[in-house]
Every structure is written in structure tokens, then in C-alpha cells.
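Folding follows sequence. Below is one example:
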Amino acid sequence: MPKSTKNAVTKVREHRLAIVVDSSACLPSPIHSNIPLRVVPMKLTLGDSTFLDGVDLSSSAFYQTMRRNLKVPPVTSAPSPGAFLNAFRDVSKSASSILCLTVSPRFSSSYYSSRAAAMQASNELPDTEISVIDTESAAGGHGLGALAAVRASERGGGLVQAISAARSVIENVTLLAFLDTLYFVWKGGRVKAISYAG
């Protein structure tokens, strides 16, 4: 095969779009979707052990562990750029574009990790278009934006349509959080002990 023809050959992939989120999105599992969807787990550190959110440790197990008398408050940390890059590499095998939606940078550095990964992927995966969106929210608000992008893609939309759908939801979602107890925010060092009555 002549060199010029060989270079012109591009891989035909099954899907137009894949969705990547960090585990802050709290998406229900499983989500029945015909498009690639990848959740990149946050890191949870409890004492001397570090776990991957939803992989090594479930939410219920996390809170049960926090109920024990841990001397050191638990720590959560964003996925590394490498974790996002691995997710981008994986879904790019079957999708020609990727939309990554992250928790707000006010709560985590996940957005910056994914941006760094997207920049590296632009060199490594030049035939895959990648966009990163800050959902300006967390938990359910984050998840609703991601689900809007998923549904837009299921209707046949590509990257532009998915971004538009996600942004439409993001602009109209306000996250309100009510705590049943201050115990966990106290254990995490967010409030002083005097604020928690036991």
C-alpha cells in the first residue's frame, strides 16, 4: 500500500460519542445506555488505607467506617490526570469523540486533572475530539448534567448536541444539601466539635 494512502486510513468506530465523569456524579448503577460511559473514581483515604470510590469501597461501607473512632479524619482526593487519561484511551477505542463532565472546581481538583489529561490526549489521540465541562455542581447536580449528555447522544446527537444538552441542565440546576447529622462533617474536620452535639 502506498504510504500516502496508508496514512489516510482512519479507524471507523462504533460510537460518535463517549461520556466520562468522575464518581462525584453519583450516577445510579447500572445506567442502561447504548453509548460508552466511564466513571473515574475519586480516592478515599481512611486511616492508612486508600480506596477507589465505588470500586474498592461502597458509599455505605465508607460511612460505616467513618462511624468507627478513626483518629485521623478521612480524606477524599480527585482522580489523577493519569486516571482520566486511561479512561480517555479506553473509550476512544469505540468512540470518535469524548465529553468529560466533572464536579465543580470549588469542591475538587477533578476538573483540572481532566483538563491536563485532555491536553495530553490531544497529542496521543489526535483523531479523537475531547471536551471537558465543569458542571458547576456536585452529586445529583453533576449527575443530571451527565445524564442529559448521555440521553442527547442516545438520540443520535454528537459532541455539540451533548454539550448543549448538558449546559442547558447545568444552567437550570441548583444544588441544595441538607444534612441529617453533623457527625460526618465533624469527623471530616469541616466543623468544630462544639457544633456537633452527638
